[in-house]
Specification:
Elements (H helix, E strand, L loop, with lengths): L4 E3 L1 H5 L10 H16 L3 E3 L3 H7 L25 H14 L4 E5 L5 E6 L3 H8 L5 E4 L2 E2 L1 H9 L4 E3 L2 E2 L7 E3 L1 H4 L1
Parallel strand pairs: 5-7, 6-8, 7-9
Antiparallel strand pairs: 1-2, 3-4, 3-5
Length: about 180
């Protein structure tokens, strides 16, 4: 490999002037080139690939954190008077149907499903469900699914199960 040479401003100043040149335009172009070179910092020739890569540093690739799962509730939510009234009205509508309403945070009905399909439906929604009102008994399996999917309220006709993170409401607790 050829040895690298350094050209500095002092070396460029030591070159003979083009003022003695018979062509005045050549003298001007040499003078301009010399002036431009004098202002430059020392350059090493030939420039190697590692040197070019170091001079044009590319920032390291940033890593994107995976989406976090919603934080689990540690304490069961308290239903407001408005929520209790809405839950009570929906529960009365469902009597005898063996159906369930799946609700969002604003208590809008996302869908109506049979109680037999409630576990699978809630699992498949993977979030966005705030409450479930259904005509049936709250069982351990449904309560576990509600805890996993971060549901705040289960409103059922009856319940023999309790949960620390999901509020299980019955007609007696809605009055």
């Amino acid at each position: 490999m050829a040895a690298a040479t350094t050209v500095s401003a002092a070396t460029l100043r030591a070159r003979p002037s083009a003022a003695s040149s018979p062509c005045p335009s050549a003298a001007r172009s040499v003078a301009r080139a010399t002036t431009a070179r004098v202002a430059m910092s020392p350059v090493t020739f030939p420039v190697t690939l590692p040197a070019m890569l170091a001079a044009t540093s590319v920032p390291p690739a940033t890593t994107v954190a995976p989406p976090r799962a919603p934080e689990r509730r540690t304490k069961a939510a308290e239903a407001s008077a408005k929520e209790k009234a809405s839950f009570n009205e929906m529960l009365e509508d469902l009597i005898g149907t063996r159906g369930a309403y799946v609700l969002d945070k604003e208590l809008n009905i996302l869908g109506k499903v049979p109680v037999s399909e409630l576990d699978a439906t809630v699992k498949s929604l993977k979030g966005g469900v705030y409450a479930v009102v259904f005509d049936g008994e709250a069982e351990k399996k449904l309560v576990d699914v509600a805890e996993e999917t971060n549901i705040a309220f289960l409103v059922a006709m009856s319940s023999k199960v309790q949960s620390a993170s999901v509020a299980i409401l019955t007609p007696e607790s809605l009055e």
